[in-house]
Structures are given as structure tokens and as C-alpha cells.
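User: Let's play a game. I give you a shape written as C-alpha cells, and you guess the letters that built it. Ready? Here's round one.
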């Protein structure tokens, strides 16, 4: 009985939050299929589309076709480093025309890696990554970073405060039922 109540609550909660991220696309780059699959399954819970790449070369090919809203990459890749990938993304696509999604040079990026030293963190940021997250990571915290980097915020709407709308930073024109509703 308790288990079925918990499952119903989980399904109801996921249904509310899954529509928040509809349309968000993330490119996940990692040599390990299990790592890519885990992230894809996690983001799928929130209706976030993921595209997977096993190498920097494959990631660059995908970026040329469909730029994502966010890049998540391991630093150790089979053909070249994640640092090199990020530098190529910044350099090669800085003048790319806007295709309806973030311009390549503006794509936020997370280095999600087992390289956890202070030096690795500094190198990742210097290469152009927006954040450095060590594996294993808390997936809820990773989701918060995704929200932060893609400028998606949860804004309660409706009189009950349980419905949410997706907005982006600077959306002061967004109307809710309460003038003082804060962004989360």
C-alpha cells in the first residue's frame, strides 16, 4: 500500500516536471557507453533530449549538424581530450550563424569527469567549460547545474502553486497569479 502511494506520488511529480524541460537538448560525450546511457536515462525522466557521442570527432560532427543547448563531456576521450574538444568548439564555431539554438560559441558546457583535482578543474574552466563536476556526482545537483547553465528556471503558476512554467532569465514579462513569485 505505502509502496503504491510512493510510486503514484513519484509518477505525478515526474509528470509535472517533465514538461518543464521539453525541447532542451544536451550533447553527452563520453567514451563509456554506460555513462552516456545513465545520463540519457536520467535526463529522459525530465523529457530532456540527449544526443550521445563516444568521441570528440563524433561530437564535433553532431555539433555541426544540430547545436545542442548544453554540452556535457568527459575530459578523457579516446581520440583527444575534452579540453581539446572544448577549445575546438569555441574556436571553430565562434562565427557560426545562429540556428535557432544557442550559437556554438555560447553553448554552455560541463566537464563531467573522474579527473577531480584542483588543477583539472582550473584547466577545464580555462579551456572553456562552464563548470567542472567530478564523478560520481549527485544527479539532482547535476540537474540544478543544467538549469543554471541553460537559464531555465522553475516558476510556480496557478493559484495552487503546484503548476510550473518554464521561463528564461530576464522574463520579467512572464505573468503569474502572484506578483512576488520568486524564481527558484
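Assistant: Ready! My guess for every position:
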Amino acid at each position: 500500500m505505502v509502496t503504491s502511494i510512493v510510486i503514484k506520488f513519484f509518477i505525478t511529480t515526474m509528470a509535472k516536471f517533465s514538461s518543464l524541460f521539453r525541447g532542451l537538448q544536451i550533447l553527452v560525450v563520453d567514451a563509456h557507453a554506460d555513462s552516456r546511457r545513465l545520463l540519457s536515462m536520467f535526463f529522459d525522466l525530465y523529457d530532456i533530449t540527449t544526443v550521445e557521442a563516444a568521441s570528440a570527432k563524433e561530437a564535433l560532427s553532431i555539433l555541426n549538424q544540430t547545436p545542442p543547448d548544453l554540452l556535457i563531456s568527459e575530459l578523457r576521450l579516446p581520440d583527444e581530450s575534452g579540453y581539446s574538444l572544448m577549445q575546438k568548439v569555441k574556436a571553430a564555431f565562434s562565427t557560426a550563424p545562429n540556428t535557432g539554438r544557442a550559437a556554438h560559441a555560447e553553448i554552455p558546457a560541463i566537464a563531467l569527469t573522474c579527473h577531480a583535482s584542483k588543477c583539472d578543474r582550473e584547466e577545464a574552466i580555462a579551456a572553456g567549460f562552464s563548470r567542472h563536476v567530478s564523478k560520481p556526482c549527485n544527479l539532482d545537483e547535476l540537474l540544478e547545474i543544467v538549469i543554471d547553465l541553460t537559464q531555465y528556471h522553475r516558476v510556480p503558476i496557478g493559484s495552487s502553486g503546484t503548476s510550473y512554467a518554464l521561463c528564461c532569465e530576464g522574463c520579467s514579462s512572464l505573468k503569474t497569479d502572484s506578483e512576488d513569485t520568486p524564481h527558484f
